[in-house]
Design goal:
Helices cover 46% and strands 4% of the residues. By secondary structure, it is mainly α. The chain has a single domain (2-309), classed as Glycosyltransferase. The strands form two sheets. The protein has a three-stranded mixed β-sheet with strand order 3-5-4, with no helix packed on it. Strands 1-2 form a two-stranded antiparallel ribbon. Helix 4 (78-90) packs parallel to helix 8 and helix 10 (182-192) runs antiparallel to helix 11 (199-212). The longest helix has 18 residues, at 46-63. Mean pLDDT is 95; it is low at 313-318.
């Protein structure tokens, strides 16, 4: 796939991938865990993934923390830590002392219902954003389905019933940090795919995804997540797959389409917020993956799944 070549070419000499740009700069710890996980199992990527893991182990030593975050300057969060742990599993280091310790640290982010918040104890993140004493962090510490679904990809970390309980009546899972629910839903469905009791939930998610594919204003990132959902639901949409292959750019990437939103710490329902700042750098911002790495990794993963499910024969542009 040309998309794989694009991603490999964007890995730094240090072994990290980076994307998005907020006040702390580019994200590399979170992004490296994510890209590494999405590339896992793709032939020819093994060396790159091992370099990424080694770089993240070194980075953990630099930050002096138990897990990982947006980048080395930002305190640990559960989402970044989960993606790095997923990568660790893929490269055979899930039982290393570093990974075991990071996994244990996620207990501080877990709620009584088994869901995870992005941040747990708020002291470090409050100091980082120079928050006033008593600042409300209920939004950032609340149970987040998108973060919990990511953590469910770490073996034994999240009980399947916890994810099932978070599914909305229409079949989707809610995204806190993303402008679209397609990402959280794709992650949840993928995590539940091997759980027999989840077949009905996955079917409902597939129905929601198929209905959503009828929209005319979807980004390639959203289409890829919807393709992933339908693939696991047993009816991968071949037309959507072909759309992805035909919208690939000349360098093997896809146009930025992953819209990351940064709610204010107190916002528990970012869907109700209407005053966002496109391209901002702090709370209230909505930003795209300017390097196209996050979107491309998501699409490469979706196309890999579609090949596995037999919905794409490889005809057309070579993705």
């Amino acid at each position: 796939m040309a998309g794989v070549g694009f991603l490999l070419s964007r890995q730094s000499e240090a072994g990290l991938w980076s994307d998005f740009h907020l006040a702390p700069g580019l994200s590399d710890e979170w992004i490296t865990g994510y890209v590494g996980d999405r590339l896992a199992g793709v032939p020819g990527t093994e060396a790159a993934l091992n370099r990424a893991w080694s770089a993240l182990v070194d980075r953990r030593g630099e930050r002096g923390g138990r897990g990982w975050g947006y980048n080395v300057d930002v305190p640990q969060d559960a989402d970044s830590t989960a993606w790095v742990l997923r990568l660790a599993q893929h490269v055979g280091h899930g039982d290393d002392e570093v990974a075991v310790d990071a996994r244990a640290s996620l207990a501080a982010f877990r709620h009584g219902d088994g869901m995870l918040g992005t941040y747990g104890p708020t002291g470090d993140i409050a100091r980082f954003i120079d928050a006033d004493p008593g600042r409300d962090f209920r939004g950032w510490t609340a149970p987040h389905p998108c973060v919990t679904a990511a953590a469910a990809g770490v073996s034994g970390l999240v009980d399947a019933e916890v994810l099932l309980a978070a599914q909305r009546p229409d079949g989707r899972w809610r995204s806190y940090w993303w402008a679209s629910d397609s990402f959280a839903t794709a992650l949840a469905v993928e995590a539940l795919a091997s759980y027999p009791a989840a077949s009905s939930a996955i079917h409902r998610a597939g129905q929601w995804a198929n209905e959503s594919l009828g929209s005319s204003d979807l980004t390639a990132f959203e289409i890829a997540n919807l393709v992933t959902i339908t693939a696991f639901a047993g009816a991968c949409d071949a037309t959507a797959v072909r759309t992805l292959t035909m919208t690939m750019l000349a360098d093997g990437s896809w146009a930025s389409g992953a819209l990351l939103r940064v709610p204010h710490p107190q916002d528990t329902d970012p869907d109700a917020v209407i005053d966002w700042t496109p391209g901002g750098r702090v709370e209230g911002a909505v930003v795209e993956d300017l390097r196209r790495v996050f979107t491309t990794a998501t699409i490469v993963h979706a196309l890999t799944l579609s090949i596995r499910e037999g919905s794409w024969s490889g005809e057309g542009r070579e993705a």
